[in-house]
Amino acid sequence: MAAPAITGLALFVGLPFLVAFGLAFTSARLGSPLPVEFLGWEQFRRVLADPVFLRALANNGLFAVVVVPLQTVLALGLALLLNQPLRGLPLFRTLFFMPVVFPMSLVAVVWVLLYAPGEAGPVNAFLGWLSLGSWSPRDFLHEPAWALPAIMLTSIWQGVGFQMVILLAGLQAIPAERYESAAIDGAGGWGRFLHVTLPGLRNTLIFVVVITSILAFRLFDQVRIMTQGGPGEASTTVIYAAVRAAFERQQVARGAAMTVVFFLIVLAVTLLQRRLLRQEREGR
Amino acid sequence: MRGAARSLRIAVRYTLLLAAAALMLAPVAIMVAGAFKPDALVLPEAGTLRGLFPERVTASNFADVLARTRFGLFLSNSLLVNTAIVALGLVVNSLAGYALARLRWRGRGVILAGVLALLVIPFEAIAVPLFWQVTLLGWRDTYLVQILPFTANAFAIYLFYTFFLELPRELEEAARVDGAGPWRTYLAVVVPNVRPAFASVAVLTFLTQWGAFLWPLMVTSGPAVRPLPVAIATFFTQPPLQWGDILAFGVMMVAPILVLFLLFQGWFVRGVAASGIKG
Fold first, then answer.
1. Which ipTM score applies to this complex?
2. Chain B environment of A114 (Cβ under 8 Å)
């Protein structure tokens, strides 16, 4: 009964995964008449000495450092606002979750319009209104300092509803008695948040932080559509660099080496999550 | 005094909710308003509040999209690929989840550990070698290459596995006493009792696959099998840049999924929440 799924996984996940490691140690190129040579660690040495790839790693790292805490806090804030006995909340939940069903490529195209340079650009206009006219309009997607932050904001807009829904489910799973006994002990709103809500959400928060971190390293669609990694290499990412190597320059071995580095980062984040979750189980 | 503090707190909460809702809704409103405006007015008015309420509403952008692109083809490509992934995926992954949760067979432990290990591998980590594989097989520019690699899914198997573990065994034992084999038990007893699991997995699969961009971008070179997410990106870079047309394309592309979302909202939200709880 399990055979079709297991065969599929073996052929389309297991095999390419092993092939990735294999390819990364060779000189393979697509459509090249030259014989494939075994290069040992050479591809990794080249990739890790490539300033574009190092910039890509730094960009993904910066993206994670900014977006993970910001998006998690925003998602938690929205979830807390929605976790109340107030009227009309399902409507707000629908609104906040709606961007999640938008394909990222569409979101990226629409945000290119939102980031239009000059005072007519919606983001510029909004910042001008917010700063009472003291904001000087930017060409977000063509200025090295702004390209990556612009992509960050777009990603948060699209993804925050996803995290919010997971955190809301986590909040609703905290037993009401814990809040009641905290109230009897004289805890105020802030005290209840620190001593009941946060500990009760611990595992959900770890999960949300881990998937957002992994998403930060998977970044591709927005970069490809909004900036093509530019200006210069200001918004290039690991996967964007890997796809460019394999797909545009036919250097599959080099692309494979980059994705192996990417996988090792994802693996490290996942192992850290397992460790944190185990600690909690043992702590009890 | 207490009542006043309480109303103030409620007022603050609604203000925050409304501000957040305005920020979340603004890009969508700008997209929809722009889709119904003459091209020349879209960019100049995009940053104004007045621009959200066009004076002259026109459907010409939609006619342009249909004339300038093969929208119908892209939509049917997307529908075909996604329906196939979801439908085939539900069958093979639920069968695997059931076999792992309930049946005793040699190698079960190893396979289960293997599936759990594959959970860690994101698609991007295998995209390059998979691209190399399908190029060697001559599979580029087909529907098959967009469907087959995404049908068997470790996360879906794992979700089904956990759902089946929670199912009370008595139901299946009654079927077995009646002489039903594993396939009959699965079809007649198990499937009808885990409809929520099927709905959650279907919604999650659809959500992650409908917007897929990287893979179809790599493996489709012409419009014949190109899905919507790649089609809008291509249309966007194809001169002349006419924002009205692009936004109209966007509205046409997102309308079907928004309708699905509004109709089956509960399932979307539960599906995502389930991924958090089980993950």
1. 0.90
2. 27, 30, 46
